Amino acid sequence: MAFDPLQQRGIPLDEQLRDWRELNVTPIDPDHADPYTRCRIITMNGIETEAILFSHQLARHCPDPEIKQRLARVRYIEAQQQKTVNWLLPGSSSVLETTIAYEQVAVDLTAWVARMEPDSYLRQAYQFGVLEDFDHLYRYANLYEMIEHRKAEKIVDGLTEVMPGRPTYLHHRDPLDNVRQPYDRSVTEPLSRLHALTIMSAEQQTMNFYMNVGPTYMEPIARQLYQEIGMVEEEHVTHYESLVDPGESLWEQLLNHEYNECYLYYSFMETESDPKVRNIWELHLNMELEHLRLAAELFQRFDGRDPDQVLAPALPPPVTFEPNKGYIRELLATQIDCTTLGTGYVKEAHERFTRMQEAVMAGEKPASERVIDDNRAISGREYRLETEGPHPAGLQLSR
């Protein structure tokens, strides 16, 4: 039967507080864990972080002390959930190994969403973005081989290919061309709302991660690569957040956030291969059911509408981490040379794009290109993981 979170009873909020022992979860084993378990952890960390940040913003615009207190109570539990999820990541993994996992999330989560998205304009936005994250994976994999002398297949486990996407230096666009057209909340499918919120949250977490870990490196090329890709991630957050209809009230947005958390915890509970991690997904789902009930009460009180007018009558099919190699290859063959112009997409380097490129590059080769050159010089060839044959766009391996 379809799972309707609005009809389910969760754990009462008064019973959700956990002590330090309960929060001190055992991290996954990086050498034996399913790579997609790590991807689910990274995704839910981003989802919980967005929920917390949104709740803070809502509280800052709320004059009612009682509502502020209610938001604070739920937000504290969300913060415990975020710590639990993020602390599942092993401390033995290097920052670069976690970075490569972040990009595997960006590739396979965004590709899956693009495949499932019913709206053609929104689908194009995800297709455009995924080819850029795919290239970031390739750049970081070469940095990983160069400074840690290891290969990214240890992390992605052959589930995701590693080869050039849309070249990273071509991702630097005029900010005007990163703003997309939002969906119309009055007619859009409920699934499209969930997709937009999910990918926005995941990219926001990646942006935050890179802006914080980038300067911790001593190697100049690593610092510069994180800085360059970190700026692209800012563009991606702008790209995805602009898809959300700004006409949604803050209470409608709160409702969407809580429903999306239920959707993703349910999805990952259904697809998780690690029993201990699955137990955490199930526990957090039961917490989120109560958070959703409280958000629905606020939505009814302040928007005067029934949640069924906004939300799907039941959860869509589970979000699934799975290989998307054929789909990515098709996009590489047909869309690798796209850029944006206003809210649309073109295949020509227009004047505004060219001006931005000249201003940012200042006549120098960017770190994203130099890291490939440097690894070729050190390793004898650039690093790729092409499990399905030659590059579909004809980009040959350089030695």
From TrEMBL:
<protein>
    <recommendedName>
        <fullName>Ferritin-like domain-containing protein</fullName>
    </recommendedName>
</protein>
<dbReference type="InterPro" id="IPR009078">
    <property type="entry name" value="Ferritin-like_SF"/>
</dbReference>
